[in-house]
């Protein structure tokens, strides 16, 4: 399968402090047609910034200092905004975390969907409205005809998120980025939205990037997983490998912090410390200050992402066998 998205050596920094800050550092990955890539990590790991970088929507304070981003083979990093704009909506689309702040509160739902169809699809007003109705039916919104003339505040959180999915799919993109699409929803609606995303992805064969901090979601939907920590890739592997044989201590800690209803543990396991901020990144492994296995070499230089198997890579000296932790 061909790669829909290829990212290599992506480094994003604060424009005003290019030598002191590091939001993303040497991030690389690919997403193939029909594949679901899950990106996980704590808040502050750079997941959303990575998505905004791919979409060309970084705020002015941030800049891509190095690396490449290719969508369907077209190199975009370093090019003007018009180059990104030509791909957004048509070839790639994004579903944001909170639909209430992403939808225009003073525009009816139908207008917000038909705007994409008329701009990207070249449809007339009547055709666009009919297609908007079909999209609402496609994302399983009840009474879709009446919802076309509703305002965002008249819909529930789950329905607003379905509208966002309909808008994202309006121009039939090849790549869909879902940035924690179920965070603000209750558990039942979360499951419905995730089932809908997976179903739509399978039907259309699009490449899907699912950003979340919920490893349970990743287990259900993803084909491959990329673990991001403090702007660097800690580990990448198939979803089965990540859960059966995690190699990086950070991945192990994330899995260890998942509540287990069958175990009799008095307290939940927590990862000590916090994710470092952009101005206080450790010189070596960024997880070293919180890692129970750290050794002096870990604090000298950032470890490279090394292959452990054909479909498994980790940025850890211990995982790659470069030192052995004393028993």
Task: Characterise this structure.
- With 327 residues, the chain is α/β, with parallel strands linked by helices.
- It folds into two domains: 3-91 and 174-265, P-loop containing nucleotide triphosphate hydrolases (Rossmann fold); 102-172.
- It has helices spanning 47-55, 81-87, 99-102, 109-120, 125-138, 144-147, 157-169, 187-204, 215-221, 239-244, 249-256, and strands spanning 3-14, 24-32, 36-40, 62-71, 74-75, 92-95, 175-179, 207-212, 224-229, 232-238, 306-309, 312-314.
- The chain has an eight-stranded mixed beta sheet with strand order 6-7-8-3-9-10-12-11, sandwiched between helices. The chain has a four-stranded antiparallel beta sheet with strand order 2-1-4-5, with helices on one face.
- Strand 4 (62-71) and strand 5 form a beta hairpin.
């Amino acid at each position: 399968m061909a790669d829909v998205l290829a990212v290599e050596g992506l480094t994003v920094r604060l424009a005003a402090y290019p030598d002191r800050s590091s939001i993303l550092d040497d991030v690389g990955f690919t997403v193939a047609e029909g594949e679901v890539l899950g990106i996980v990590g704590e808040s502050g790991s750079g997941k959303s910034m990575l998505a905004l970088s791919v979409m060309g929507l970084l705020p002015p304070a941030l800049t891509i200092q190095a690396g490449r981003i290719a969508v369907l083979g077209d190199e975009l990093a370093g090019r003007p905004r018009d180059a990104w704009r030509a791909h957004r909506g048509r070839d790639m689309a994004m579903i944001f975390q909170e639909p209430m702040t992403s939808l225009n509160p003073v525009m009816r739902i139908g207008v917000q969907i038909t705007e994409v169809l008329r701009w990207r699809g070249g449809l007339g007003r009547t055709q666009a409205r009919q297609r908007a109705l079909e999209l609402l039916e496609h994302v399983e919104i009840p009474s879709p005809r009446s919802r076309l003339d509703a305002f965002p505040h008249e819909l529930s959180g789950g329905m607003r998120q379905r509208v966002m999915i309909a808008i994202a799919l309006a121009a039939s993109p090849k790549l869909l980025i879902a940035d924690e699409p179920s965070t603000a929803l209750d558990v039942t609606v979360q499951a419905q939205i995730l089932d809908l995303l997976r179903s739509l992805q399978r039907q259309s064969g699009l490449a899907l990037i699912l950003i979340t901090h919920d490893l349970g979601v990743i287990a259900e939907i993803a084909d491959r997983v990329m673990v991001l920590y403090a702007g660097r890739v800690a580990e990448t592997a198939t979803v089965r490998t990540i859960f059966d044989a995690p190699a990086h201590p950070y991945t192990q800690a994330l899995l260890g912090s998942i509540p287990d209803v069958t175990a009799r543990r008095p307290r939940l396991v927590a990862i000590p410390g916090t994710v470092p901020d952009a101005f206080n990144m450790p010189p070596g492994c960024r997880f070293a200050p919180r890692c129970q296995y750290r050794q002096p070499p870990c604090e000298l230089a950032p470890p490279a992402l090394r292959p452990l198997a054909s479909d498994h890579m980790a940025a850890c000296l211990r995982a790659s066998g470069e030192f052995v932790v004393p028993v």
